[in-house]
Amino acid sequence: MTTLVDVARKANVSKMTVSRVINHPDKVTDELKELVYQAMRELDYHPNMIARALVDKSTRIIKLCILEDIDTTEPYYMNLMIGIAKTLDLHQYSLQLVTRKNFDIGNCDGYIITGMREQDVDWIKNLKKPVVLFGENRYGFDYVDTNNKAGTYILSQLALEKGYQHLIYVGIDSKESFEYSRESGYLQQVQEKRMVPELHRFDNHSHLAEEFVEQNWDKIPKNTAFICASDRLAIGIERGIVRCGGKIPDDFGVTGFDGVFLNQVASPKITTIKQSIIEMGSACGENLLDKIESNEQQGALVFEPKISFGGTLRE
Amino acid sequence: MTTLVDVARKANVSKMTVSRVINHPDKVTDELKELVYQAMRELDYHPNMIARALVDKSTRIIKLCILEDIDTTEPYYMNLMIGIAKTLDLHQYSLQLVTRKNFDIGNCDGYIITGMREQDVDWIKNLKKPVVLFGENRYGFDYVDTNNKAGTYILSQLALEKGYQHLIYVGIDSKESFEYSRESGYLQQVQEKRMVPELHRFDNHSHLAEEFVEQNWDKIPKNTAFICASDRLAIGIERGIVRCGGKIPDDFGVTGFDGVFLNQVASPKITTIKQSIIEMGSACGENLLDKIESNEQQGALVFEPKISFGGTLRE
DNA sequence: ATCTTCCATGTTATCGGTAACAGTTTATTC
DNA sequence: GAATAAACTGTTACCGATAACATGGAAGAT
To answer: Strand pairing of B166-172 and B199-202?
Structure first.
């Protein structure tokens, strides 16, 4: 492996000059810089990150901590990791997957945390390394997320444009920030149109939504669209309607949120918000690395939602 | 952060002695060792992996390279990563997720490769760091996998015990080693019972298996069990049988292989081989780390298959 | 023309460990 | 009991980089 010294020898300069060419190129004359660059090229030199890390007491490790139960069937986290890993690789950082349990084993330069709930706030506040959350929050932590409010807002709008006359919101029964945002997107749309909002909340299981439809079938008028906070709930609603003999999308509309896996087994497919988790993961990594290098708050990174058209809203 | 020198000072020895207590404890007297251990405890000392890595030119990075298309809906790779990460964490290694494209960016101490095909063999042979494959192979590479042959063998056996009188094997149309093994497990069972084998092969898509059943429905006698090389194919067979009016499990049996995701949406659930990918991932990590530290071939690690009972074979 | 000041470069020490060698003590041998 | 081997422990150099300080020469000030 070629080292700084090899390059220095070849370029006839001290190794410090080489180091400077890499880290503070403005402090070296163009002439020498050219020599050094050439030597680096000829020797195919790549700085040894380990040595550098030893000096500046860094680790070049980023820990990804998934606080939710990850034993799910969703490719969500896989995509997230792929996205993060992609960025980190480019900057020669490596990704370490940890759980709350082995969180403190080994050092790192920063954290990406996802699935944060209220109870985790203090813990996160006390972390001594930069943190970026994946998922919006209202505690001032930097984060990356889809614009949740805009998502339900535009889906509600679309449903109304398609002529559905009642909009029922089916939310997740949790106090997480994204849920509030999704609710408020629906509410805003409904209020702008001077309609009466109707909200229901369940744990995020399709069968609960399905039961809800079955038990309230007689009270649900035709021409209703359900704006759901997740694809999972949307699938449940869809199944409930089908089972009760309702016609989708002619008499009833359904929209979801997520666009990851479940959408692929539903029939017809749910019209939903598509989130490019990979892309968002990349952004997450970049945000964190910027933060590490600049030591400054980077702010939130919000992705504008895109509708993924399925067959659960009229054409 | 406490260092070797801090510990040495506290224990009144040289830092070399502390280093030896950690790496070659047999070369230090018990008396000093005790002193050092105590100092380490009191100071909560943890060796700096970066410094160590600088000396022995290691990186403490393991690259996981997934050669197949990972944009699937299976949680398979997620589980694999969780398993690997678990072990690596314990040994203060970190996991880097790479694709063939960015494979060479940055150094590492070893590779875990999955999804290898014939065309990758030469490339893998030329890698200069230890490699463990996830998935069996016949090129002499160390690997971790389920005992594929035993899997179809015991499923075939089970089907026969349940009284099905014909066994049809539905395989994946590929030349990968695991497929050969699964075929041979079926074949061995069938031959032991002096039955006539019947094999069909398709790309690993459920609809192909489904079409096969529909097109050959009249030729398939009652009391047949289908031994499938994947859950995906099994689901297709199941759907085909249901669509043609066949009764599962009374008149027809179906078994799969994998037990990861698809099993959860099938109705009835497929009787299949359950693979604990997480556990296998851990084993993979351990195997590789042993190899790195001992510099010796570790051999294959084969997990014995376990049947996951669904509703596609008679009670 | 001499004294600063500034800028580009080189030298030294350091990060936290480990290997190789040196020195010291204890045990073994004849 | 002196010579020699064996067993510990300490010293020094080094891994590959960077920061802080030292040096030397050119430009600017007086």
So the answer is: parallel
Report whether A61 contacts A288 (CB < 8 A).
no
> Coil, strand or helix: which one is A298?
coil
> B97, A95: Cβ pair inside 8 Å?
yes
Determine contact, residues A63/A108, Cβ cutoff 8 Å: yes
**Contact predicate A169/A181, CB 8 Å:** no
Rounded distance between C-alpha atoms, residue B130 and residue B86, angstroms:
19
Q: Are A182 and A149 in contact (CB under 8 A)?
A: yes
Closest CA to D12 C1' — which residue?
B16
Question: What tokens does B88 get?
Answer: 């690596």
Q: How many CB pairs under 8 A join A and B?
A: 89
Q: How many CA atoms lie within 13 A of A212 on its CB side?
A: 23
Cβ atoms B79, B277 nearer than 8 A: yes
Nearest to A81 among B1, B89, B97 (CB): B97
Closest CA to A253 of A165, A129, A171: A165
- Radius of gyration over alpha carbons of chain A, in Å? 25
Are the Cβ atoms of A70 and B78 closer than 8 angstroms? yes
Strand partners, A252: A224
Residue among B44, B35, B99, B32 at smallest CA distance from B69:
B99
Q: Please give the model's pTM, rounded to 2 decimal places.
A: 0.79
How close, in Å, is residue B164 to chain A by CA atoms?
Answer: 31
Residue in A with minimal Cα distance to B92 = A106
Out of A77-81, A82-86, A150-154, B27-31, the most confident range is A150-154
Per-residue pLDDT of chain B in tens (315 residues, 90 and over written 9): 899 999 999 999 999 999 999 999 999 999 999 999 999 999 999 999 899 999 989 888 899 998 877 655 567 788 888 899 888 888 888 888 887 767 776 788 999 999 898 889 999 999 889 999 999 999 999 999 999 999 999 999 999 999 999 999 999 999 889 999 999 999 999 999 999 999 999 999 889 999 999 999 999 999 999 999 999 899 999 999 999 999 989 999 999 998 666 666 667 889 999 888 889 999 999 999 999 887 777 789 999 999 999 999 998
Type of residue found at B226: F
Question: Which residue do the tokens 């499938």 mark?
Answer: B228
Instruction: Quickly list H helices, chain B.
Output: 4-11, 15-23, 30-43, 49-55, 76-90, 121-125, 148-161, 177-192, 206-215, 231-243, 277-294
Give the pLDDT score at A267: 72
CA distances from A155 to A225, A272, B176 (A): 10, 8, 45
C-alpha B282, offset from chain centre: 9
In this predicted structure, which of A33-42, A51-60, A97-106, A146-155 has the lowest mean pLDDT? A97-106
**Gap from A74 CA to chain B (nearest CA, Å):** 7
User: Which chain A residue has its CA at the smallest distance from B60's CA?
Assistant: A50
**Distance (Å, whole) CA A79 – CA B75:** 11
- Strand partners for B166: B224
Could you tell me which of B257, B284, B271, B259 has the C-alpha nearest to residue B312?
Answer: B271
d(CA A253, CA A234): 10
Alpha-carbon gap, residue B141 to A156, rounded angstroms: 55
Contact B62, B113 (CB under 8 A): no
Distance from CA of B92 to the nearest CA of A (A): 6
